[in-house]
Structures are given as C-alpha cells and as structure tokens.
Amino acid sequence: MIRGRRRVGWGAWLVLGPFFVFGVAFEVLPILTLVRSSFSTEDGWTLANFGRAFTPMMIASFRNSLQLSAVTAFLGVVGGTVVAYAIVTARRRFVRDALTALADVTANFGGAPLAFAFIITLGSTGVVTLLLKAVGVSLYPSFRIYSVSGLTIAYLYFQLPLMILLIVPALLGLRQEWREAATNLGATRAQYWLRVALPILAPSLLGSFLLLFANAFGAYATAWTLTGPDVNLVTVQIAALVRGEVQLDPTLADALALVSLGVMTACVVGYRWLATRPWRATP
Amino acid sequence: MAYVELKGLNKSFAGKPAVRDFRLSMEKGEFVSLLGPSGCGKSTTLRMVAGFEEPDSGEAWLGDQNVLDLPPHRRGMGMVFQSYALFPHLTAWNNVAFGLRIAGRPAAEIRRRVPELLELVGLREAGGQYPRQLSGGQQQRVALARALAIEPRVLLLDEPLSALDAVVRVTLREEIRRIQTALGITTLYVTHDQEEALAISDRVVVMHDGGVEQVGTPEAVYAEPATRFVATFIGKINQLTGVIERAAEGWVRWGNHRLAVPSAATAGLADGREVVVLVRPEAVMVTPPGAEGPTGDNRVPASIEIVTFLGPVTRLSLTMDGRPFVADVTTGDRGRFHRGAPVQIVFPAAACRVLAVDRAGGPR
Lengths: 283, 364
Prior knowledge:
The structure holds two protein chains of two kinds. By secondary structure, chain A is mostly helical. Chain A has twelve helices and two strands, in the order αββααααααααααα. In chain A, helix 3 crosses helix 9 (189-217), helix 7 (148-172) crosses helix 9 and helix 8 runs antiparallel to helix 9. Chain B is α+β, with helices and mostly antiparallel strands. The longest helix of chain B has 18 residues, at 166-183. Chain B is elongated. The interface between A and B is medium-sized, with 19 and 26 residues.
C-alpha cells in the first residue's frame, strides 16, 4: 500500500508542545497586542496613532535608522564578503576554522557591552584615542564615537562577522569548474567575477544585505548606550515613548513598532525569496 | 610533424606521481581517448594540456608552439567537463554565447553563430531554457556547443558522459563522434569506460598508475594487449599461466596440457620461461567431449559450472583441471549447455597471445 503524508504521532506533539506555547507567548501574542494597541485609542479603533507616527521628528528617526541600516549593511556585505573569500581560500584548515569561530562569537557580541568596549577604546579618553594622541594623531573633535559615524563603526563590529557567517556557505558553493570553464572560454579573473561568480552569488549577497539591514534596524542597546538620545533612531524613539522620559505615549510607540515590524518582515520575506532562487550557489 | 605532441609530461601531488613521462602524438582531426581506471592520471593529463594543472616537467606542442607557456584561454583548447559546468544563471543560448561575448565578437555574428551551434547539438529549441530545466544529456550538449563556439583547435572532453544513464551515454557518444567527424576537430577524450573508448576513438591510450601502458587503435588494443593490465582492463580474458616448452615450435606447458600458440609469440623467449597465455572468451568453441576439429587447435576437457545469459551471447563459466575458464557462445546455442555437463573447449593457436612474466613476478 502506498502511504500518503506521514502522520505525526501524539508523542511528537507532546514534545513540540512547549515550543508552540513559547512561540505563541513571546511571538504571536505580543504582535497581536501590538496590532490592537497601535490601531486603537480609548475611544475605539483608529488610524490616529499612525498619523502621529509620521511627524517630522519621527520621519527623521526612520530616515536615520534606514540610512544607518543601509550603510552598515552595505559595508558589512562588501567587507564581509572580502574577508569570507579570504577565509574560504585560506590554505590551512586551522586558519579557516579559527576565523569562522571568531566570526561566530563576534556576530553575537552586541548591546551595552559592545558600546562600552568602543567607549574605552575609541571614546574621548579611550585607549586607542590616547595612543594616537601620543603619536600626534588627534581623533577628536573631528571624529566622535558618540555620533552616527561612531555608531556605524560599532554596528560594523557585529555586521561584518554576521556577513561572514552568511556568505561563507555561498562562496563554498562556487564550483571550481565554473571558474575553469570561464577561463577556458577566455574570461579574465575580473570577467569571471563580474559575469559568473557575482551573478551566481547575487541572491546570497542581496539576501544577506536584507538580513544585515534588519539586524541593524532593530538594534537598540548599542545605540542607546553609545549615543543616548543624541542620535535619533526609531528604536530609541520607541524606548523613550514607552519609558515616558519626555512623553509617555505607548500607543504611538506601538504604531512605530508596527511600522518597524513591517520593514523587518519585508526584509525577511525578501531574504527567504532570494534564498530559494534556483541559480544561487549552494555548497 | 604531428598536430599535437605531448612530450614527457610529469606531475606529482604531495610527492606522489600522478602522471609519469606521458608521451603522445596526435594528427589533425584525430580522436584519441585516454582510458584507464580512476586515479590513473588521465584527467590530470588532460588538465595539464588545458592549462588547469602545471606539469612538473614536459612539453605540450600544438603545431609549432609549446602551449605550456600560454595561459589556458590562449591555448586554443575547448573544454567539456564531467559535471557540465554550465553557468546556472544563464540560459543555454547565453551559455553558448559566453565565449563569443568575451572574445568581443560582433552581436550579429553571435546571433548567427549561437543558433547554428545549438542546431549542431540538436537543441535549437532549447536556447531559452536554463541549465536546471534541461536533462543531463541536454546540458552536456549545451556544454559541447559552448566549447565549440570559440572554435578551438583541440577539443578536450573530461569524462563527459559518466554522469549520464546508460541509454543517453550511448546516444550522446555517437553524437559527439558525429560532430567531431563533421567538424574535423582534433579531440582528446578522457573516459574510464572501455566500451565507450573502443566505440568512438581512432586511437586509445591505456593508462595505469600514471603511466602509458599501450597506445593503439581500438582493434589493436583489444586483440593485441601489450600488458596484462591492458588485457584484463579491456574486456574479459582468460589468463593461463604456464612455461615455454619449446619456443621454436610455439608450445607452452600449462598443467597437464601442451598449448599451441603462435611461434612468433614465443620467439626470443627461452624454454622454461614463465608466461601467461591470454585467450578471449569469444575465441573459444565449446564442443561435446572428444569431438573432432581442425589440426593445431588446442583441446582441453572441462566441465560447465555456471551458464549466464548476457543477451546476444551466453557466458559459460567452466573449470579445466580445477582452474576457471570462461567461454562465450551464441545465445541461440545455449540450450546445448547445462550446468555440470562435461565438454571440450577448443581454441586455435592463432587466438592466443603470450606475455612473458618478468623477474619480479608480474607479466608485462
């Protein structure tokens, strides 16, 4: 007898149960609450919260967040790809494994500890700042770690290794025969990269860009610890509205969060679509 | 002067020789196959010619130029890979056009040439399809068209059919031969499939352990194997180890039997020298015990152990004085042969090939 789809037994559901409960409690319910809150006031359903979410100040926060995310994602993609290529072409396996492990650790190193690390190295009295000053190079006042450019450097600390982890499998999927075939057909090294390797890698590169973009867009702790309210980002605005330091307005914060959720969802959907492109390089 | 001349190519990997003193001359338009088991150095040889491996020593002449001094794309070689190596983001049409575009050919020429090449490989209608939408056989046809597009002086094919199923392999190998003959392109072909090599080649180079065992026409390599390796690698063969009884008469003592072999095959060998007599199964007749036949034939009593149906022929596995022997009979006669039946095997002296066993104990 030909059996159809395999039935999942009660034992499997029991094991999966806690994960479903966890997912519902910490993913589904908060989103539903967010949706309800952002579309309602004490008087009932409304779009007024979104009207207030697009004041010049809030629009500026979105612009800053989008710019910071785009710049750090772009730099992360370019720099991470170059470093990842160096890793996958390293002759010694030990070097490859060690660098990949380092990327794994640093990709997950963010938030307040990362901000403090940058303050004590590149802050106005940081180690590197003082060492450079001792040899006659003054970073300050033309550079400030407590600014958007400082934030860009801090974000790159986790964006680069994340890109390395994302792109290494795709680089390993570039088949040696493609390079040899291109070479045999007359392509130079540059032509091989422009006409073969990069188009094949394009879905992975674009998908990784979207993930890095989402990663930066949702970052809060690093930005707040490093720059406080000096840099106007969406996540900083949401936190301020919830904490009520200047103005307590949780429904406006929910509306901002829902718009941010839309941006993040678009990134993830785009990434998933690109990840299923049939010509992408897979190891 | 040969069109392609490979002289003393050597290559080692981590101190282990992969190719040893490879030498080959090819005439223009010739189809030569490198045949051998996995790891014998045939692909490495091809890759050295293509420019993807640098030989430790040797020369590769194409016409009056040693191409080892040139980068791969300046050698005038078109390469077809085992795994097709089609660019997955390009359609079949654009894969074929790739080399032409790189060469900066005019768009009008590309628009004319690509359909011609797709037509040549029987895929005119598939130009708009991506590699993933094509079967393995179709992909390899596109790869062949792509390699031919740059009008190479020599076509190199590295096990192009090994990833395909049996039926497609046979069809495509005939296609490759047809196209090669039509274009008159000099071709070096790597395969581990002896039937494939014998079927499509003008000459076959049998390789083993990085060295050349024999170079010859398919008929010569099959009928007159130069070494025991060639004899056993190409087709089924019986190996009867004995000693020269009288070299001048062409007699070999094999157990209790005296075998007659061509006297030319034993010329120069001392009486008492250990030899291996090689006999192809299809050269053997199986008759009832004691049946008469032409004088000079070898006749040995045997018994049938196994009868194996192989389609047009039936293979009889026999024992002669406890030693195994195989004979092929036409399947129409298979009803005459039964397991355990006593028979007489008959093979003419002319069907025997003799190889001397060298002092190290291995026949050459």
